[in-house]
Amino acid sequence: MRVWSLHPRYLDRQGLTACWRETLLAQAVLAGRTKGYTNHPQLRRWRATGDPQGAVAAYLHGVADEADRRGYRYDRQRISAAPAEIVVPVTDGQLAYEWRHLVAKLTQRSPAWLTGLGEVDAPDPHPVLRVVPGDVEEWEVR
């Protein structure tokens, strides 16, 4: 499961679709609708909020907004909770780690997409996330 901290605009078509699907899985896990992935480390970020399901719903809306911008059709009816008015922290170290991870993926899978992104000194976070100083998140599996 990879729920990216990066803004969805950086994800290629495959990455955006995978992020949508994997975040829908995270939503199901947090709602208790599945037995798998219940201890997945990336779920710690959402559980640490006051409203895990609402936070994930807000995240999903951000991914769907990017899909809309590109002319894709993601079914927002699959979002099972009302989006929370919430800001979730993410460390600058985590963003840098994920950026390197994404660049490595795009170099192999979608080099033209990577080139189209241009120079990115400090990638933006997903709109639900706010950057705070710090190292790679403790829940990240390296």
UniProtKB/TrEMBL annotation:
Q: Which domain of life is it from?
A: Bacteria
Q: Mind telling me which InterPro entries this protein's record contains?
A: Pyr-dimer_DNA_glycosylase (IPR004260)
By its UniProt entry, which Pfam families does this protein fall under?
Pyr_excise
Q: What is this protein called?
A: Pyrimidine dimer DNA glycosylase /DNA-(Apurinic or apyrimidinic site) lyase
Native organism is Barrientosiimonas humi
